[in-house]
Design goal:
about 260 residues, alpha+beta, Thrombin, subunit H, 7-stranded mixed sheet, 6-stranded antiparallel barrel, 6 helices, about 15% helix, globular
Length: about 260
């Protein structure tokens, strides 16, 4: 695994003590109600963001054909705050049908020999429509690369949100860790994004994006308490160094705004 990390991403000169480690998370009071925990077929957990009262943005691989065998009866529940809603339908980038969308499942990508494409360039996002709306407003999404840079530079707080696992034990509530320390090895946010091929990355020893966080956001809060969604967690490579990648929402912004 260590060798693969070096091939894919170059040598990572990291100090594990420099990054938020597994279990170092902030109070749940720091989590807006519009960031949600997803229960997939009662078998797996993902995370999502409410971008409208009846619309959730998450990762496509959470609800693709490898996880949802009957898309007409998805059996996916969404818990935001203390309320739960159920999914009516979902769609993928540019199509209601997975096979006609810009998303490839991991199995499809492997069959085509495009695992690197699947990891870096695949539109791994999905929109879930709910049977009943939440009584919460959705979170605004960042619409361009320049907007992404400004948000990172000016926000009072940015967090990595997820409903995954801590120390390999499932947790019942969402949690958040501070995102900004992951930039500290770089001179600027632009340098950080250039290294990550414009993805928002977390790296360290069991740090940042963790198992089960798929679909969750990196989200930032301004000085007036307004939140914005920057990205959707897409993948995690585990090894001596953990590397998580979160896909910026601006890469699929036209489709997101259309479905919102």
């Amino acid at each position: 695994m260590k060798k693969n990390l070096l091939i894919l991403f170059g040598a990572l000169a990291l100090s594990g003590n420099s990054y938020a480690l597994m279990g170092d998370y902030l109070s749940s009071k720091s989590i807006p109600k519009s960031i949600c925990k997803l229960d997939i077929q009662s078998k797996s957990v993902c995370t999502g963001t409410l971008i409208a009262p009846d619309t959730v943005l998450t990762a496509a691989h959470c609800v693709d054909s490898e996880h949802i065998k009957n898309p007409k009866k998805p059996r996916v529940s969404v818990r935001c705050g203390r309320k739960t809603r159920y999914v009516k339908s979902f769609s993928y980038p540019d199509s209601e049908k997975e096979s006609e969308s810009r998303y490839l499942t991991k199995t499809q990508a492997q069959a085509l020999g495009e695992t690197r494409h699947w990891s870096f360039n695949n539109s791994d996002m999905a929109i879930l429509k709910l049977k009943k709306p939440f009584p919460y407003e959705g979170i605004e999404v960042v619409e361009s690369f320049s907007d992404l840079l400004v948000t990172l530079e000016t926000s009072a707080f940015c967090g990595v949100f997820g409903a995954g696992t801590d120390n390999y034990e499932r947790v019942g509530t969402l949690r958040v860790i501070d995102f900004k320390p992951f930039k500290q090895s770089y001179m600027s946010w632009e340098d950080y994004l250039r290294w990550g091929q414009q993805y928002l990355t977390t790296q360290g020893k069991k740090a940042g994006i963790r198992p089960g966080d798929s679909g969750g956001p990196v989200s930032c809060r301004d000085t007036e308490g307004n939140w914005r969604v920057l990205s959707v967690h897409q993948s995690l490579i585990k090894g001596e160094v953990w590397l998580g990648k979160s896909r910026p929402v601006y890469k699929d912004i036209n489709w997101i705004l259309e479905k919102k």
